[in-house]
Write a structure and sequence with these properties.
This protein is an alpha+beta fold. It has a single domain, classed as Structural Genomics Hypothetical 15.5 Kd Protein In mrcA-pckA Intergenic Region, Chain A (Roll). It has two helices and seven strands, in the order ββααβββββ. The strands form two sheets. Strands 1-7-6-3-4 form a five-stranded mixed beta sheet, with helices on one face. A hairpin with a 2-residue loop joins strand 6 and strand 7. It is globular and about 30 Å long. The protein starts with 9 loop residues before the first strand and ends with a strand.
Amino acid sequence: MSDQPPAAARVVTVREVPIELCQFLKFGGLAATGGEAKAAIAAGKVLLNSTVETQKRKKLQAGDRVAFDGQTIVVQVI
């Protein structure tokens, strides 16, 4: 693990909620493909609001924080 503090969360704006976790990972740029997003979620590598989340179709709401691979993104609605 790195000794550096985690980077600040980046806000990702979506048109409507709920949005599924696997879709948000891809849309937010934390996963290159939907398959990569689903695999990361199934492997327990994704945190939703600081808790491991393994449901790939988990519905997210505005303000939810998703962390994966050292990056954090926050759901914001237009």
